[in-house]
Structure formats: structure tokens, C-alpha cells
């Protein structure tokens, strides 16, 4: 993981713990290769996602199993709708990621 973090450019596959840790250590915004969800079967010759790689919106790693339950409201909430600094992950539609939109240097 440390060796990955020393790379100039980081391409991370979806659901990659090694890639997320390396991204966090390096403080770099990685390129992410999305992959089908674990319950979707991949078939030989299947076309890759379009585009094949997307730039992550933040240097922060994705959190793939957030709790959507709001104790005060006693119901589920869409976290990316109630907090301006939370966005959906590039590789996992149900995951979240911290994003600093005011920063232009990333």
C-alpha cells in the first residue's frame, strides 16, 4: 500500500481497499475504474463501462457502507442531499465520499 502511494498517478479499481489506502496516504485524487456490482455477473466479451476511468472528486477514500438512518428524524435520509460536503462515490452508487468543493487545487 505504501509503495502504491508513492506513484505519480494512481488508478484504482472499484472496491479496492489497497487503492483507497494508497490514495489516502498519498493525498492524491485517483482515477477510478468502475466495475459491476458484486451481484451482477460479468460475461466474457462484455464491453467496459463508458468512460472506462473517471476522476474521483476528492482525495478522501470512499465509504461503501454508510448508515442512512437519521436518529433525530427517525427515518432514512439521502446523505448527499442534506450535507453539502458529501457526494456519492464514483465506483459504488450507495457509497459516500467527503468532498471539498471550495478547493480548486485538487
TrEMBL record:
It is an enzyme of class 2 (transferase). It is found in: Golgi apparatus, Golgi stack membrane. Residues 42-62 are annotated as: Disordered. One of its GO terms (biological process) is xyloglucan biosynthetic process. It is a single-pass type II membrane protein. Transmembrane segments: none annotated. GO terms for molecular function: galactoside 2-alpha-L-fucosyltransferase activity. Pfam families: XG_FTase. Its EC number is 2.4.1.-. GO terms for cellular component: Golgi cisterna membrane. Keywords: Cell wall biogenesis/degradation, Glycoprotein, Glycosyltransferase, Golgi apparatus, Transferase. It comes from the Eukaryota. May be involved in cell wall biosynthesis. Belongs to the glycosyltransferase 37 family. This is Fucosyltransferase. The lineage of its organism: Eukaryota, Viridiplantae, Streptophyta, Embryophyta, Tracheophyta.
Amino acid at each position: 500500500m505504501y509503495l502504491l502511494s508513492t506513484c505519480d498517478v494512481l488508478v484504482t479499481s472499484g472496491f479496492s481497499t489497497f487503492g483507497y489506502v494508497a490514495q489516502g496516504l498519498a493525498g492524491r485524487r485517483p482515477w477510478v475504474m468502475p466495475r459491476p456490482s458484486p451481484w451482477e455477473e460479468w460475461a466474457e466479451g462484455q464491453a467496459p463501462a463508458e468512460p472506462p476511468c473517471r476522476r474521483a472528486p476528492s482525495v478522501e477514500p470512499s465509504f461503501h457502507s454508510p448508515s442512512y438512518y437519521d436518529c433525530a428524524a427517525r427515518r432514512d435520509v439521502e446523505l448527499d442531499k442534506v450535507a453539502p460536503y458529501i457526494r456519492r462515490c464514483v465506483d459504488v452508487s450507495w457509497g459516500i465520499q467527503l468532498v471539498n468543493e471550495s478547493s480548486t487545487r485538487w
